[in-house]
Write a structure and sequence with these properties.
Blueprint lengths: L1 E4 L1 H8 L6 E7 L18 E7 L7 E7 L4 E4 L9 E7 L4 E6 L2 E11 L7
Parallel strand pairs: 1-4, 1-6, 2-5, 3-8
Antiparallel strand pairs: 2-3, 4-5, 6-7, 7-8
């Protein structure tokens, strides 16, 4: 599996990285601490998450190569992905579009940097 990021998507993600951070491509199924919600509709949904290396990543047991850093995934989410994919920045919606050789996988991939402090 491989994901080719367009220049803007690559820049948007890389500006959040340093040598102690990793990228997760999270299948939004409600499983794990980085999944924001369970699927409540008939649409495959993913998010891009940034975490510190020291943060827990249970369940993220496989990597996908990209033209930047590897993306960690939940291994079972591969059934909703394709061998050759692209990730592009959607300027209008400020989200990402994940597509494969079979078409769009998710046209509204969100982004969350879990390394940033959040107000309680």
């Amino acid at each position: 599996m491989y994901i080719q990021l367009d220049d803007r998507a690559k820049h948007q993600i890389e500006q959040h990285l340093d040598s102690h951070k990793i990228v997760l491509l999270t299948f939004e199924d409600g499983v794990g601490e980085y999944s924001q919600h369970a699927m409540i509709h008939m649409q495959t949904q993913f998010s891009i998450n940034i975490i510190e290396e020291a943060m827990p990543k249970e369940g993220y047991d496989e990597k996908i190569k990209t033209n930047t850093v590897d993306f960690w995934i939940k291994g079972y989410s591969k059934e909703d992905l394709q061998e050759e994919m692209t990730l592009r920045w959607n300027e209008r919606l400020s989200t990402y579009v994940l597509a494969g050789e079979g078409g769009i996988i998710d046209d509204n991939v969100s982004f969350i940097d879990f390394t940033k402090k959040r107000d309680a």
